[in-house]
Amino acid sequence: MGCPVRKICRNGSGSKLMGDHEKAARFVSLMVGAVKIPVTCKMRLGWDDENLTAPGLACALEDAVWPRLRCMVARGSRDSAGQ
Asked: What 8-state DSSP symbol labels residue 16?
């Protein structure tokens, strides 16, 4: 999440999607539910210095993501990572 290309952002995708936390969370939740492989979310820090969207977006995605420690590799539960 975070493509800066103007024609992508113009359609509400890429970096622009990071500003709509509810829509982004819904999108990621649907993706997680549709596939059997892990879904990762790589994002930019924000739109610019005055609009840092990553902290709020990370909170919005809290129920859709599975944070893991490196030592967990591909095992463990959300609770074992302090969630």
From this structure: G
Instruction: Examine the residue annotation and report whether 3 is marked as an active-site residue of this protein.
Output: yes
- For all residues of the chain together, what is the average pLDDT? 82
Helix, strand, or coil here: 51? Answer: strand
Give the residues across from 51 on adjacent strands.
48
State how far Cα 69 lies from the chain centre. Answer: 17
Instruction: Check residue 82 and report its DSSP letter.
Output: T
Would you say residue 82 has pLDDT above 80?
Answer: no
Give alpha helix (H) positions in 1-83. 6-9, 21-34, 54-60
Q: Which of 3, 9, 41, 71 is catalytic?
A: 3
